[in-house]
């Protein structure tokens, strides 16, 4: 997806547990968008040996990944309806130069989400 035109791509969250923390920060007047920080709750996948070690060491089975406020806002804006361009417009209206250049920053955040396997990105015509 490196040379892909991202403007019309639509990011979609993959079902994963998550929760809000802290008080709301800045946010747009969009239903369902709170401006609160998000924590992803990602279940660890262990091999048999790792499972044994985890049991002995009492390692947690869930990784809590707290996101930066701009990543949290992006997470909330990913609803399967907004495309990359629309999300960038909203993010820029909220964070101005703090997220400049907005296209590159949002793309980088989306790539992190994709690598964590919590978001997929589809071309407009692929979305059902």
Task: Describe what this molecule looks like in 3D.
With about 130 residues, the chain is an alpha+beta fold. It has one domain. It is built from four helices and five strands. It has helices at about 50-55, 70-75, 85-95, 100-115, and strands at about 10-15, 15-20, 35-45, 60-65, 120. A three-stranded antiparallel sheet has the order 2-3-4, covered by helices on one side. The protein has a two-stranded antiparallel sheet with strand order 1-5. The relative contact order is 0.24.
In brief:
The protein has 128 residues and is of the alpha+beta class.
Features:
single chain; 128 residues; alpha+beta; three-stranded antiparallel beta sheet; two-stranded antiparallel ribbon; 5 strands; 20% strand
Structural class: alpha+beta
Count of individual beta strands? 5
* Widest sheet: strand ordering: 2-3-4
Q: What is the mean pLDDT?
A: 91
Which SSEs are present, and which pair or pack?
Layout: E1 10-13, E2 17-21, E3 37-43, H1 48-57, E4 62-66, H2 69-77, H3 84-95, H4 102-115, E5 119-122
Antiparallel strand pairs: 1-5, 2-3, 3-4
Helix pairs in contact: 3-4
């Amino acid at each position: 997806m490196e040379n892909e035109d991202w403007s019309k791509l639509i990011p979609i969250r993959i079902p994963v547990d998550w929760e809000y923390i802290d008080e709301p920060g800045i946010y747009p007047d969009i239903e369902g968008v709170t401006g609160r920080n998000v924590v992803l709750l990602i279940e660890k996948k262990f091999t048999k040996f790792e499972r044994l070690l985890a049991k002995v060491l009492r390692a947690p089975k869930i990784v809590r990944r707290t996101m930066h406020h701009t990543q949290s806002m992006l997470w909330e804006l990913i609803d399967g309806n907004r495309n990359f361009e629309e999300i960038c417009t909203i993010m820029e209206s909220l964070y101005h130069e703090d997220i400049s250049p907005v296209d590159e920053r949002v793309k980088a955040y989306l790539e992190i989400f994709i690598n964590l396997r919590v978001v997929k990105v589809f071309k407009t015509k692929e979305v059902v």
